[in-house]
Amino acid sequence: MDFNYFLTLLVFSPLLGILLLAFMPKANESGIKMLGVLATLPSLILALIAYFSYRGGNDLANFSEKFRWIQFGGQGAEQQGLFSVNYELGIDGFGLIMVVLTAVIATLAAVASFHIKKEWKGYYMLFLLLEIGMLGVFTSQNLILFFLFFEITLIPMFFLIGKWGYYEKEKAAYSFLIYNGLGSAILLIVIMVLFSRTGTSNIEMLSVMMNTENTPMFAPVSESLKMGLLIALLVAFGVKLPIFPLHSWMLRVHVEAPPSIVMIHSGILLKIGAFGLIRFGMGIFPEQFAELAVLLAVLGVINLLYGAFLAFIQTDFKMVLAYSSISHMGIVLIGLGALNEAGIQGAIFQVVSHGLISALLFFLVGVLYERTHTTTLANLGGMAKGMPLASGFLLAGAMASLGLPGMSGFVSEFMAFLGLFEEMPVLAAVGTIGIIMTAVYLLRAVLAITYGNAEREFVGVTDIRSFEWAPVLVLIGLIVLIGVYPAVLSEPLQATLETILMGIGG
Amino acid sequence: MDLDTLLSFDWGTMTPEFIILGVIAILSVADLFMPKHVDRKVLGWAGFVGVVLALISLVSLIGTETTSILYDTFRLDSFAIAFKLILLLGAALVMLLAIDYRTNDGLEEYKGEFFYLFLTALLGTMFMASSGDLITLFVGLELLSIPSYVLAGMRKRNLKSNESAMKYVLNGGISSAITLFGMSYVYGIAGTTNLKGIAQVFGGLSDPQHIYILGLAFFMIFVGLSFKLASAPFHMWAPDVYEGAPTPVTAFLSVVSKTAGFVIILRILLSIFGYIPVAQEDAQPIPLLFAVQDYIAFLAGATMIIGNVVALRQRNIKRMFAYSSIAHAGYILVALTAMSFVTFDAIWFYMLAYVLMNLGAFAIIQLITMKTGTEDISHFAGLYRRSPLLAVGMGIFILSLAGIPGTAGFIGKLNIFMGALMVDQAHYVLVSIMIATTVVSYFYYFGVMTQMFFRPAASDEKIQLPAGTTAVILITVIGTILFGVMPNLAIDFMHTNFNQFVDFMR
After folding, report:
1. Mean pLDDT across B251-279
2. Is the Cβ–Cβ distance between A286 and A211 less than 8 Å?
3. Which helix (H) or strand (E) holds A87?
């Protein structure tokens, strides 16, 4: 099978949807929504084709493609192969998983967007642009291209939050823009320093150059500079992830953005931080990364506990979930800090698993809000009476999130802690408090919603219906699938893990 | 000089200038004899055709050998051609804007003059790009400045316009005087006004006293010329003049005049101060230009900070763009500070991108301010409702000005970063300031976005699009995106035809 242009097609196929939408009459609500969902399908189908063809024995290297794009610095530099930026896409096991995750969540979020009440056309056009950005991030093979896609996600998000969000939407959009703008500014500095010093921005070449003694470069990169760059990377991706002191923007977004967008945001955009740390942090600066491992593990535990304790005292369900996201990202950091196979595997599992779980939970939040127009815990209660199915799914989502065995959350937490106990048992022991707290706050919140006393009667609330079935079933199915058969993830990841471990000398 | 010598000059190299000169002559005579009631738009179209013809003749000159005529006072090297391309492109677009510009405060009676004064200023900039002598440089500078002073005050019955002309002429006079004073030192020591000759004399300079005097000369020239760039310390005129001048003139000042400023600065700095050896303690002497790099860096930093921070407080869109324009001058000064081997490339590309994005933005500003009669940002509210195409166009220009990937502005910034980081002592501080202030600029740029997309419109009246302005918007939108997605089109063109400007001053 010929895979030229395969990834380009995969990444840019939502563009077709954008173009078609541009010609749709504004008032045709159902047509626009249908088209919006349909436009996410080509990427999903292509991503699945890639996944199954890989499972069927096809080499992922077949998917890579490369074209000449920009040549900086004139003909002299070109002859030496310096300062050229190619358009190059490719995937490894990790990238493949992220692409599949993105495509799945994007389609489901597009379905969830049926709740959007106004200006569907603009909404879906921006939504599809956002999808292009996300798919591009996980497939780009050089840093400049990565940055390009990274920033492309920023702009649609700004509008999606600022126009279709709740009461304080503009504030949330601005804090999203400024925090992430600063994060990507720092990332850009790192990228440009690397590019201007080495003359290349190709990730693979950079990781070879940075880790081989005496490679010819345009200008030398000293050890201390490498450390500085890694710390800058940590800050840049730390904003995205988000790591503890840099998280405040993310709470606002979780609360103010429409639920379908939070599905994307919490399910995928936050994961770009983890992806970047693993791909660039570990890939390009393995030695320095190992030096920072303890710091990462400590940050991870702080995130885990801080998120968990604050989630416990929230009165709004969206805030509970927002802090829960912060807490769960701590597990990613813990896994990375452990710096052994189990740990890193746990971190990546957590990335995927939390993506699915938070997408599910926020979808259900959307369903709930749609019917009751509130997410305050005190106002909700006894929902199990009116909407038993939705309540059941909510409980299932919470169970997956707190790490019930047999669901994806368990595998990732188990692996991450297994890794950390091996390296830093004391820290890991402290971290387990967070796990217990997770059970406490999630059950408190979910039980308050489903069984607690209703402050007011919700007359005529309907249970999950029609289109809402699809996302719920797909997400729960995937969560359980990963929980009982983790090989769907671990097998594609094997090669990536080996490369990473070889880099850090483990 | 007899007729034979005069005829022996290769006058063909001056074709574009001759065309512009001819058009100026025709327009001024035609304006004189045309009856009063005839619409002067015709003259504008004639002027536009003239600029386009000059552009075509210039394109046909690409690839010719470097020639210099009139005893080396007029040079046609790749530098001259490259920058004249931008100047003519910018001027052509400004002409289109000027044709559609209408006010009721005294401009109509002078519309004919308006056009040929434009062209005169343009002629001045073209001479600056081509000059090989201090005299032609200065004459070009004044040929640009004097018509600009008149143009700024063209709306006779508008107080702000009068004020702006007054401020402009005073500041301009002072800065010209300072520049000329600096040049007089150069002439005094070199004994010649020819740039090549000066370089030769200065190459053998060893008396430290001379160096000090030339250091002084450098500062005067640089400070004086910073007036044309609207960079610190001579930036104070910009907001008032930009606000008071008719919008096409503002566009001209911020784009064409600024480009010309960089042209003259590059010419003078490189060909004079790049050759003065400054003795170093136990090291090779370095050119004066490199010895004063820190001071240029300081001015660049100050310009970026002043421009971006003060812009935050502006409510008047033209004032805001004045500060934004100051900020952009600062960005380009970073490239100038770095003096790497991509400096020319970076400045050329950035100017090209800037012409496209800023002129596009001014086209829309002109439309809206003419429509509403005020320049307050709040009148952009709901533009998306009134005219989605205009809003999206403005959105693209703003994204490009803010340096978001996918636009020409981003590639321009990337080029500047690279230049500043690849040199021996990388300018980390300067690059950090540039990136940080870029993030600051998100606040005011996205403020316009907020108005256009989030806020409700005062009226739902559709906006009429005049032909010329529409053409400008289309061309600039296409250019901004095209050079953002496929910058290699422009960059490769530059590399093949101008080959890093190797013949500069040879």
Report:
1. 87
2. yes
3. strand A84-89
Distance CA A184, CA A197 (A): 20
Q: Quote the CA–CA distance of A432 and A402 in Å, as a whole number.
A: 12
Q: Tell me the C-alpha distance between B442 and B381, whole Å.
A: 18
pLDDT for res A65 = 87
Gap between the Cα atoms of B220 and A217, Å rounded: 39
For A202: left if phi > 0, alpha if psi spans -120 to 50, otherwise beta; the answer is beta
CA distance B435 to chain A (A): 6
Report helix, strand or coil for B505: coil
Give the separation between CA B33 and CA A462, rounded to whole angstroms.
Answer: 81
**Cβ pairs A/B, distance under 8 A:** 104
On whether the CB atoms of residues B280 and B191 are closer than 8 A, the answer is no
- Range with lowest mean pLDDT among A375-384, A457-466, B165-174: A457-466
Q: What is the DSSP string of A196-220?
A: HHHS--BHHHHHHHHTSTT---SS-
Question: What is the structure's pLDDT at A332?
Answer: 92
- For residue A83, what is the nearest residue in chain B, using CA coordinates? B418
Q: How far apart are CA A227 and CA A487, in angstroms?
A: 35
**Contact in structure between A210 and A229 (CB atoms under 8 Å):** no
Say how far apart CA B466 and CA B459 lie, in whole Å. 20
Distance CA A234, CA A237 (A): 5
For residue A45, CA distances in Å to A9, A36, A102, B443 come to: 11, 15, 12, 39
H runs (alpha helix) in B245-292: 247-252, 258-268, 288-291
Q: Tell me: the pLDDT tens digits for A215-260?
A: 777 777 888 888 999 999 999 999 988 888 888 899 999 999 999 9
Alpha-carbon dihedral A297, A299, A300, A304, rounded to 10 degrees = 140
Measure the CA–CA gap between B79 and B62, rounded to whole angstroms: 11
- The number of angstroms, rounded, from the C-alpha of B476 to the middle of its chain's C-alpha atoms is 16
Kindly tell me the number of DSSP H helices and DSSP E strands found in chain A: 23, 2
Q: Where are the alpha helices (DSSP H) in A140-258?
A: 143-164, 169-198, 203-210, 223-240, 248-256
Please indicate whether, in this complex, the C-beta atoms of A70 and B454 are within 8 angstroms of each other: no
Residues of B with a Cβ under 8 Å from any A Cβ are 341-342, 345, 399, 404-406, 410-411, 414-415, 417-419, 421-422, 424, 426, 428, 431-432, 435-436, 438-439, 442-443, 446, 449-450, 453-454, 486-488, 491-492, 495, 499-500
In angstroms, the CA A159 to CA B449 distance is 9
Which member of A71, A177, A196 has the closest CB to residue B442?
Answer: A177
Burial class (CB in 10 A: 0-12, 13-18, 19+), A76: middle
Q: Yes or no: say if A127 and A21 are a contact pair by the CB < 8 Å rule.
A: no
Structure tokens at B288: 């004066």
Token pair 């500085």 in the structure block, residue = A228
Q: Which H/E stretch holds residue B7?
A: helix B3-8
Nearest residue to A471 via CA among A318, A357, A384, A387: A357
DSSP, collapsed to helix, strand or coil, labels residue B315 as: coil
**Residue A188: phi, psi to the nearest 5?**
-65, -40
**Using CB atoms within 10 A of its CB, is residue B285 exposed (0-12), middle (13-18) or buried (19+)?**
middle
Record the pTM: 0.92
- How remote is the C-alpha of B448 from its chain's centroid? 24
Residue at token pair 């210099």: B68
Strand-pair partners of B359: none
Q: What is the pLDDT of residues B22-47, one digit of tens each?
A: 999 999 999 888 887 777 888 889 99
Cβ burial of B73 (10 Å; 0-12, 13-18, 19+) is buried
